[in-house]
Every structure is written in structure tokens, then in C-alpha cells.
Amino acid sequence: MLNTPGNNIDLHPDIRPTPTPAEGGSEEVCLFQRQPSEMEVTLDRVAQSIHARHPQARRDCGVTVVRKKLKAILKHMPTPAAEGVQYLESIDQMHMRMCASEQWTKDGGVFAKGLENWLAPTMERYEAEPAKPARTEPVRLLA
Length: 143
Fold this sequence. Notes:
mainly alpha
């Protein structure tokens, strides 16, 4: 039985009716679609962001693999589910800092870790701070 105005069926808040072709929907048979959770939306956004930002020379996997690696990281870490979104955001911020580091920008990024390697759950490289930049001041000689 469909949720029509006359039958008063309450739907779960994460489920909404799929529009019919007359309402601008597709011809698919599926009647209901689940709304993605905040975690799923964040996971997709962070995976795309990390993939797009990583140095091209060391981008050895696609967005789908990045998403799977991020999910594995969440399973590996003893992070409560409620803090998962924040943890993904912190990984994204760490990746941003790593991509801006001297090591990862030198020679077009050839010294950066491979993306799949950097996201290895058991290696925890995604938690390591970037190395401090080399000393930029000229050395003063004492005479």
C-alpha cells in the first residue's frame, strides 16, 4: 500500500517517496529512497576532497577506494560513532596540511606518500603531522 493522502501511513524520517514520472521522477520501480546520513554525506565529501587534492604524481587510486579506506579507518579507530564526522574532518584537515608541506610539494609531489598508502588504516599516517619546513634563514657566520 502506498503512502497516499488518504491512508495516513507514517514513513520513517530517513525514507521519502520517490517522485512518479508525472512529478518529474524516473520510470524506476523503486518506491522509496533512503536519505543519506550525515556520516555518508561527510564520507563522500571528504573522499572526493582528499582524492582531488592529493598530488597527481602519487594519486594511485580512485574516489571509491579512498571512501573504502576512510570507512576502514573509522572501523579501525576506537572512535564513537557520534564523533566519526569530526574525525573524518580532522583527517581531511591533516591531508590539507600534508599536501601543503615542503616534502609533498617538492618536484610536483613525487616525494608524497601514495594515496592508498597514506590512508592505510593500520599505518595511521593520516594522523602524523607534516614535517617542519627546513630552516629558511641564512646561516650567519661568526668572524
